[in-house]
User: Which sequence fits this backbone?
């Protein structure tokens, strides 16, 4: 089982403007999952809020950097919000920080995923740095979540592929015996 994690960051003189543009992109990006309303953000405590609040946090707490993560469980049927919350909680505990983050779920691809924006300073105004070892930790935390909550889901696709390739498979109904 392998969770997918992608990390990048925004820094430099124009980081605020570029981070706010990223918030717009993940909230308003066209796709079947967006319909007419913009996608709602969520965080560790709140279920749905607008990107304006995220932009205000960027202005207040971005520090030197704003981190961008893409988290995907890589397994169908996973509650991406619950997955993201658990992974972010584990990361905060591992780093000894109260991370200040917000995320949006995208279901416009074959692999539902969350776009997470992490402020450059935590809720206690301590600087947040993410390194390769942190991305590896995030992947491992995601895999632990999947093992606890979706242990057998990883076999579904593999078993379905085997069944479809089986010479005994009949597309009209049950496998032939």
Assistant:
């Amino acid at each position: 089982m392998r969770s997918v994690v992608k990390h990048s960051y925004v820094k430099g003189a124009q980081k605020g403007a570029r981070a706010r543009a990223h918030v717009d992109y993940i909230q308003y990006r066209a796709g079947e999952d967006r319909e007419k309303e913009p996608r709602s953000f969520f965080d560790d405590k709140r279920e749905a809020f607008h990107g304006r609040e995220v932009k205000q946090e960027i202005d207040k707490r971005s520090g030197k950097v704003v981190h961008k993560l893409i988290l995907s469980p890589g397994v169908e049927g996973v509650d991406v919000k619950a997955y993201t919350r658990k992974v972010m909680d584990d990361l905060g505990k591992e780093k000894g920080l109260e991370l200040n983050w917000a995320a949006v779920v995208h279901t416009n691809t074959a692999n539902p995923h969350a776009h997470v924006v992490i402020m450059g300073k935590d809720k206690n105004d301590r600087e947040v740095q993410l390194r390769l070892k942190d991305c590896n930790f995030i992947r491992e935390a995601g895999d632990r979540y999947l093992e606890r909550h979706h242990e057998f889901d990883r076999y579904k696709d593999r078993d379905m592929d085997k069944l479809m390739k089986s010479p005994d498979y009949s597309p009209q109904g049950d496998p032939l015996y």
